[in-house]
């Protein structure tokens, strides 16, 4: 097992610094709320700036396809900065979920046609899975070999041959940025019940028969859509010989590591905001931050956030070195974010619950991410099952 280098390179520090400065200027509280009210749910100008100055959409894509050629670690560090300000953007849907699948399973022609446009920010993409099965498809909370994509029966998304191409019909819910993405990577079942299998298909965002409706989500900074596919023409991703379920499982661990760093960034900022507030708010003639009980509560949050940061950084490093720790890191990071956000609202008092204050946005991010990718106890349970920790007769060395 390789030893983890706990330091960051000059290039990694520069990515973090540049991204933090850019987001500070263009994604403040007012800009954030304005972006949430747009049809897309994000600011296209900010996305263009992120693509132009940092190459964010193609950060982890090979240079041969117009990317920067960095690793998952750089992608995770970028997510941490994005999480600090809850920046609404197609980053997660495009760069973390959709692009790696095209890179892993697509034909040379598909990669050449699509990845350079994703890398330069002119094409956004989204991963669409049936129902509310995103965490299942990514193998975060259980085995993804079940019937989550339809299983050959009615329901989910079904695919059938139509001459030289394919036609899709069915419904996918909770598709991140699915209402605005220029390209959809749709998971669908094909074949009869006995021989059914899951495949991935490419569907343009303006395809005939595709109905996209933005949903009202608990976390408005994470826009979601419901897709209805009514006999939609689709292109098979890859040759059909690739192991789609294994590719989704591998993607799940990478996505979990990136999401863990994003949650750590949000938790860290929520804690910072709370510390700033308790230094200013006075009660009984003194700042409430001077009371020992408040100090203890914030100290507990600080320890939790730092532990989650260590786990998230390790998960990002482990992904690059062929190890898997994303699920556990995500569980710890979501728990830290929930704790930081809850304490933030408590210590802000009544103002923390209001729409005018940012504190509730961090709490909704914590709750929304647990609904999408968790909950925490299922993330941990699946990690334990995958490691065979509780098999009868297994010896555990402490």
UniProtKB/TrEMBL annotation:
Keywords, ordered alphabetically: FAD, Flavoprotein, Oxidoreductase
Cofactor(s), names only, from the UniProt record: FAD
Chain ranges of the Acyl-CoA dehydrogenase/oxidase N-terminal domain: 9-121
One Pfam entry name: Acyl-CoA_dh_1
Domain (Acyl-CoA dehydrogenase/oxidase C-terminal): residue spans on this chain: 257-384
UniProt record similarity statement: Belongs to the acyl-CoA dehydrogenase family.
UniProt protein name: Acyl-CoA dehydrogenase family protein
Organism of this sequence: Streptomyces coacervatus
């Amino acid at each position: 097992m390789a030893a983890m280098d706990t330091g960051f390179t000059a290039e990694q520090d520069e990515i973090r610094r540049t991204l933090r400065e850019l987001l500070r200027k263009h994604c403040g509280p007012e800009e954030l709320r304005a972006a949430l009210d747009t049809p897309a749910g994000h600011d296209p100008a900010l996305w263009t700036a992120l693509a132009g100055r940092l190459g964010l959409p193609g950060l982890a894509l090979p240079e041969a396809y117009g990317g920067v050629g960095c690793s998952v670690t750089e992608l995770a560090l970028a997510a941490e900065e994005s999480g600090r300000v809850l920046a609404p953007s197609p980053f997660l849907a495009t760069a973390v979920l959709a692009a790696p699948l095209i890179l892993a399973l697509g034909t040379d022609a598909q990669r050449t046609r699509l990845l350079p446009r994703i890398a330069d920010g002119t094409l956004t993409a989204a991963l669409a899975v049936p129902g509310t099965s995103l965490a299942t498809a990514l193998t975060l909370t259980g085995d993804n070999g079940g019937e989550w994509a339809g299983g050959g029966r009615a329901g989910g998304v079904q695919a059938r041959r139509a001459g030289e191409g394919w036609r899709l019909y069915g419904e996918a819910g909770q598709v991140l940025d699915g209402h605005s993405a220029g390209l959809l990577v749709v998971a669908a079942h094909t074949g009869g019940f006995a021989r059914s299998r899951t495949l991935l298909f490419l569907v343009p965002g303006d395809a005939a028969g595709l109905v996209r409706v933005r949903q009202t989500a608990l976390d408005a900074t994470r826009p979601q859509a419901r897709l209805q596919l009514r006999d939609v023409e689709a292109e098979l991703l890859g040759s059909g010989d690739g192991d789609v379920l294994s590719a989704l499982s591998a993607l799940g661990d990478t996505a979990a590591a990136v999401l863990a760093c994003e949650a750590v960034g949000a938790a860290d900022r929520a804690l910072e905001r709370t510390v700033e507030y308790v230094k200013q708010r006075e009660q009984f003639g003194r700042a409430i931050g001077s009371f020992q009980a408040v100090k203890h509560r914030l100290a507990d949050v600080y320890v939790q956030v730092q532990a989650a940061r260590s786990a998230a950084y390790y998960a990002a490093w482990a992904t690059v070195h062929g190890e898997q720790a994303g699920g556990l890191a995500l569980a710890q990071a979501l728990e830290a974010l929930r704790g930081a956000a809850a304490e933030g609202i408590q210590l802000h008092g009544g103002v923390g619950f209001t729409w005018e204050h940012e504190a509730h946005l961090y709490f909704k991010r914590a709750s929304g991410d647990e609904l999408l990718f968790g909950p925490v106890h299922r993330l941990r349970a699946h990690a334990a099952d995958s490691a065979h920790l509780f098999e009868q007769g297994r010896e555990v060395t402490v």
